[in-house]
Write a structure and sequence with these properties.
heterodimer; A: 87% helix; rod-shaped; B: alpha+beta; 2 domains; two-stranded antiparallel ribbon
Amino acid sequence: MKTNRWFSFFCIFIFTTAAIAGEGVSKATIDDYRQAKDAVEKLAVGKTGKYAKDIIENMNVGVVKAQKAIESGDEKLTRQAIELVNLQMTLAEAVAAEREAAERTVVAKTELKRLEQRLENILDGKGDGK
Amino acid sequence: MKRIALILFALSFCIVCISPAAQAADSAKILLAIENTRTNLGNVSDKSAGNKEYQDDIITAQNYLKLAESEYKKNIGILGNLKDEAEPTVNHYIDMANATMAIVLSRIEKANQVREGEEIDKSIRKIKGKIKVFDDKNAEIERLKAESGSSRGTVASVSKELADLKAENALLKKDITGKEKTIGDLMGDNKKVKDDLDGIVAQKGVEFVQVQSKLAAATKAREFLADVSKLGQVTSISTAGATVVIPRDNFVKKAKKGPALVPGAEKIAGDIAAVAAKNPEYRLDLKVYGYGAPPKNEDVKATEAMAIMIKNLLLEKGKINASILNASGAGTSPAIFPKDAGNANRRVEITFTYKTSPL
């Protein structure tokens, strides 16, 4: 009987811990999760999605992680995932801006190179190919 | 049952004890990640070169790193391993630090790209400016070429026009030469005709003048005869003139002391003078004729005296020039009227003689 009591205590400890963990995500956190998810979806279809697709994918992984954390009732893990996703949004925007600028730079470099070649041809008397 | 419970507890203990050992590798990874993050943060900090714009983010990343280290240190187990429950948090802080650094790096890189882009744009503007000089020159050259082409076209057109004009000119010259020859011929013909005409005109003119002159003379003669016939009876008409007979009694009559002028003599003398003045080409011969008895009143002497008397009358009253008037007495011969004509033979004959023959 004494053994049964120890077994019961062990089982209750295990399942109670799991139950507390599963139901511990606050409504505010869930709302934050939804907002983050929506924001990620919006970013994915815009300019940021075009230039920072890899970051968006990481963010989606983070969203899934947050969702799983909610499902498992892990408030802390959920908040951490959301926090990281939100920061990654900023990162995605920064990366998108960087890559867009880089793309413009590449275009400008190409144009510069073309113009330099054109000028060189003109100066060498090879004619203006345009 | 007791035994089973002990076994389960022992197993749980083993799991708890073995678990940190199994995750020792994860702790090393986390430590390595923390170390890498620290190194990266140093690099990022160097890259930002104290730029205030990124300072906040760098501090945030540093804080995340500190949190990760703190969390790690806080959750070291009795065997020196990180507790399982702490690992996500530590990893989270590492991820947050890395994400923050990535943001900083991305912003730095973007700034670099923008700066580079601006430099490139500047270079592009410079090169474009240089090329524009050539473009402008090329455009100018093209314009001049086009203008030159146009000018060439114009010159060609003008040349063709000139050639056409020359050809036309040559034709015209040829034509003119032909026409000049024709004109020369015509002028020659014309001259000949003109000469002929002039000759004819001259000849006809002379004839005309002659005819006209004759006509005028004839007209004049006719008028002269008409005038003369008014003076008295015209007895003879010739190309040289005409003779008119006027009864002597119209001029003179017998008086005690000899012949004397009758009252109508002055009028007759005036008429004769008028005819003479109108026809200055005639000279006048006045003859006084006697007839019958007494002979002393009709002889030459007596008729001479009468003639002088009538002449003087004509000179004084008629204002006739004496050089064209000749007066004489003819005596009794010859009679021109029959004897039964009475004193008709006592007459004055005035002969108008043309100084030079008019016809």
